[in-house]
Design brief:
Elements: E1 2-3, E2 7-10, H1 17-24, H2 27-33, H3 39-56, E3 60-65, E4 71-82, E5 85-94, H4 103-118, E6 123-128, H5 133-141, E7 145-154, E8 157-167, H6 169-174
Antiparallel strand pairs: 1-2, 2-3, 3-4, 4-5, 6-8, 7-8
Helix pairs in contact: 1-3
Length: 175
């Protein structure tokens, strides 16, 4: 199990439907994804995370506040396709009431550290909507730099995204 100073992370299970639904139906998440997640969407999201665990050992994880045991949101390291290539990305979805408290940065930093030190990944990316200033700020706090942009087609809708990357500092020294 991964953990940070204030959070612990665990795999999402079927019994977490309510917590995942609450996270995906949060107004902040709806604004970025531009739709409301139905019960079927939530079940499909959970299945996709579980497939990620089977294929890669990690994916979005439930982020739980240690002190209160409340679900803060979902934070993880996942394989995704970006411009036709399989890459490792850090992702974070927080429930609005936990935003602005440093949880996204703390959790994302934990995932980056895991990816670089335990998985020895050469780089980690993040794709973010240009209007999502809070997520961009998290990426920059991690030391990520903007390297490009692309348009993701999601549910038939064209959604511009910025690409942020962070190179593994250990990899840079070993070349």
């Amino acid at each position: 199990m991964l953990e940070s100073e204030r959070l612990f992370f665990r795999k999402i299970e079927d019994r977490d439907f309510s917590a995942v639904a609450q996270s995906l139906r949060d107004p902040g998440v709806q604004k970025v994804w531009e739709h409301i997640f139905s019960d079927d969407d939530v079940r499909e999201w959970i299945k996709k995370r579980q497939q990620g665990y089977r294929d890669n050992g990690i994916d979005y994880l439930l982020a739980v506040e240690k002190a209160s045991k409340e679900v803060v949101g979902q934070i993880g390291l996942l394989q995704t396709e970006l411009e036709g290539q399989r890459v490792w990305a850090v992702g974070y979805l927080l429930n609005s009431r936990f935003c602005g408290k440093g949880y996204a940065t703390e959790g994302a930093r934990t995932m980056v550290d895991y990816g670089f030190h335990r998985r020895k990944l050469p780089k980690i990316v993040c794709d973010i909507r240009p209007t999502n200033r809070a997520s961009i700020a998290v990426a920059k706090r991690l030391g990520m730099v903007e390297t490009g942009s692309f348009v993701k087609i999601y549910r038939g809708k064209r959604m511009p995204h910025l690409i942020f990357e962070l190179q593994n500092p250990d990899e840079a020294h070993s070349r």
